[in-house]
């Protein structure tokens, strides 16, 4: 896609981590960026810094998401770029044993359902709403109207113990990509997903330094955590390169996660 000042984007989860890096990369290329997040303070600060706009959006709520799209489009016009990084989920083993009591319990259906709404359903919600708007745009070069990038995870292919919800639902995000790309091919809308490995995002940086050292050493090369700006760089390339379509792309330094 040709990038110039006429292109606008929406980035969910844009107030921090991978979403923030994506918003920065797109804005640096000249794209007008609307940030969707629940963290108003951080989101507004970033929007002010990059010349974008902030919209408080709860990805679990259809009403909130639709209002966010309406607000962003009123500000910057119909987006041609959608980057979905926001998520919500819970962790737990399918069946676990309490080491003190010996009692067995399972990861509840309710917790799995919540995770599904926060990962898989939200990905479809955000992507399909964006696609509906993009489909009405005038086409650019190659008859392209837009590009959607979803965030999966390396866990989609090698989830660890305790990631039954996260791993299976991120695999579901990957599963959305090809049928959605084919659904949208006649409208000139591309769809891809990125599977980040272990990245230096705020939640990860909260773990003890010794754990971070072990994680960094487990990456074949380079032996460090991924930098959010490396994710942002790939997001920008997926916008630029119109032959990326229907792809699930790992960005992980060649790591393959062990069971635990």
From TrEMBL:
User: Which key words are in the record?
Assistant: Oxidoreductase
Q: Which InterPro entries match?
A: NAD(P)-bd_dom_sf, SDR_fam
| Descriptive protein name | 3-hydroxy-2-methylbutyryl-CoA dehydrogenase
Molecular function GO terms recorded = oxidoreductase activity
Q: Which organism is it from?
A: Tardibacter chloracetimidivorans
Query: Which PANTHER family would you find in this protein's record?
Result: 17-BETA-HYDROXYSTEROID DEHYDROGENASE 14-RELATED, SHORT-CHAIN DEHYDROGENASE/REDUCTASE
């Amino acid at each position: 896609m040709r990038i110039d000042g006429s292109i606008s984007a929406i980035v969910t989860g844009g107030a921090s981590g991978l979403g923030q890096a994506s918003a920065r990369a797109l804005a640096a290329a000249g794209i007008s960026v609307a940030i969707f997040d629940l963290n108003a303070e951080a989101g507004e600060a970033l929007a002010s810094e990059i010349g974008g706009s902030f919209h408080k959006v709860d990805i679990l709520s259809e009403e909130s998401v639709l209002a966010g799209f309406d607000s962003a489009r009123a500000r910057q016009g119909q987006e041609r770029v959608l980057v979905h990084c926001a998520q919500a989920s819970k962790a737990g083993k399918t069946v676990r044993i309490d080491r003190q009591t010996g009692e067995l319990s399972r990861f509840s259906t309710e917790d799995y359902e919540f995770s599904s709404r926060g990962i898989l359903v939200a990905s479809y919600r955000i992507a399909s709403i964006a696609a509906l708007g993009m489909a009405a745009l005038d086409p650019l070069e190659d008859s392209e109207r837009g590009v959607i990038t979803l965030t999966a995870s390396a866990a989609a292919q090698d989830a660890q113990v305790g990631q039954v919800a996260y791993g299976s639902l991120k695999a579901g995000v990957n599963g959305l990509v090809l049928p959605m790309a084919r659904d949208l091919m006649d409208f000139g809308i591309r769809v891809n997903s990125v599977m980040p490995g272990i990245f230096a995002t705020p939640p990860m940086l909260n773990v003890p330094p010794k754990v971070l050292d072990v994680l960094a050493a487990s990456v074949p090369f380079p032996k460090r955590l991924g930098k959010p700006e490396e994710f942002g760089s790939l997001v920008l390339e997926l916008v630029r390169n119109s032959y990326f379509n229907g792809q699930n792309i790992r960005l992980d330094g060649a790591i393959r996660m062990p069971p635990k």
